[in-house]
């Protein structure tokens, strides 16, 4: 296996798996006060409400509040596939009171956006990985080609540039996973960026767009009520959270 192929496999694996991790503006080597935390902690979620990042951020924020005995304020700051919120954290004092819930866009953005004002390695200290979830392809169940992934791909090939696919923003992991899916399937879908996977999935349910790359937390409620259907998953096996989902591997 040559080096270029190995790099391609690595990029695909990173782009198809949404990994949520905590990071904070670099404080390595700086002594922490023994009474830390002695005031509220701000947790920046760099995506809008309703998506996987928002769900994970609020769940972990609540648990941190309980365990640390200090309020953790979840602050949604969407924009540019997490770039806006992440730059806010990068400019905050390096004192441990501003955290960022990062996903794969954290490392993608400096390469995707020319004016990204942070270095993911030099400007942040990682804390811990808190969750992982595969990206999933969701569609409106009322579409004539919503029966299977095979039907969806056939319809996209018959109507190049006519079927839309949403994401959590240009440069986000859901955007890149959608592009990789399009490339692998040999289809042309119109990309529609949103501020969160929750927003794009809601528009799939309402019929504003035909499909979206999403995450399980963002899609689960709509799936349970029959408002969206999952056709494909980037994970190696069916999710225990969605055993009724009819899906095929995208990779």
Could you explain the architecture of this structure?
The chain folds into 2 domains: 3-133, Bordetella uptake gene, domain 1 (D-Maltodextrin-Binding Protein, domain 2, 3-Layer(aba) Sandwich); 134-249, 3-Layer(aba) Sandwich (D-Maltodextrin-Binding Protein, domain 2), CATH 3.40.190. It is built from 8 helices and 11 strands. The two termini are 19 Å apart. It is elongated and about 65 Å long. It has helices at 3-16, 52-68, 83-91, 105-112, 149-158, 173-185, 197-206, 216-224, and strands at residues 17-25, 41-45, 72-76, 98-102, 124-134, 136-139, 164-167, 190-193, 211-214, 229-233, 248-249. By secondary structure, it is of the alpha/beta class. Mean pLDDT is 83; it is low at 1-17. Helix 1 crosses helix 6 (173-185) and helix 7 (197-206) packs parallel to helix 8 (216-224). The strands form 2 sheets. A 6-stranded mixed β-sheet has the order 8-7-9-6-10-11. A 5-stranded mixed β-sheet has the order 3-2-4-1-5, sandwiched between helices. Helix 6 (173-185) links the parallel strand 7 (164-167) and strand 8. Helices cover 36% and strands 23% of the residues.
């Amino acid at each position: 296996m040559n080096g270029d192929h190995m790099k391609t496999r690595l990029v695909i694996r990173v782009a198809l798996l949404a990994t949520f991790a905590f990071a904070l503006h670099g404080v390595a080597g700086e002594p922490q006060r023994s009474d830390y935390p002695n005031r509220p902690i701000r947790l920046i979620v760099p995506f809008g409400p309703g998506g996987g990042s928002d769900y994970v951020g609020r769940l972990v924020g609540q648990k941190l509040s309980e365990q640390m005995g200090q309020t953790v304020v979840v602050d949604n700051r969407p924009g540019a596939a997490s770039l806006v919120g992440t730059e806010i954290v990068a400019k905050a004092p390096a004192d441990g009171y501003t955290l960022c819930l990062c996903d794969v866009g954290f490392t993608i953005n400096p390469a995707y956006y020319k004016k990204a004002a942070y270095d993911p390695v030099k400007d942040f200290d990682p804390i811990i990985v808190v969750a992982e979830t595969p990206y999933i392809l969701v569609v409106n169940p009322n579409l004539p080609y919503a029966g299977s992934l095979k039907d969806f791909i056939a319809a996209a090939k018959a109507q190049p540039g006519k079927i839309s696919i949403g994401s959590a923003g240009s440069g986000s992991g859901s955007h890149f996973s959608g592009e990789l899916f399009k490339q692998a399937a040999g289809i042309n879908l119109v990309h529609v960026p949103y501020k969160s996977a929750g927003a794009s999935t809601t528009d799939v349910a309402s019929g504003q767009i035909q499909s979206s790359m999403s995450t399980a937390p963002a899609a689960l409620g709509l799936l349970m009520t029959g408002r969206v259907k999952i056709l494909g998953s980037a994970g190696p096996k069916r999710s225990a959270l969605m055993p009724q989902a009819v899906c095929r591997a995208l990779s």
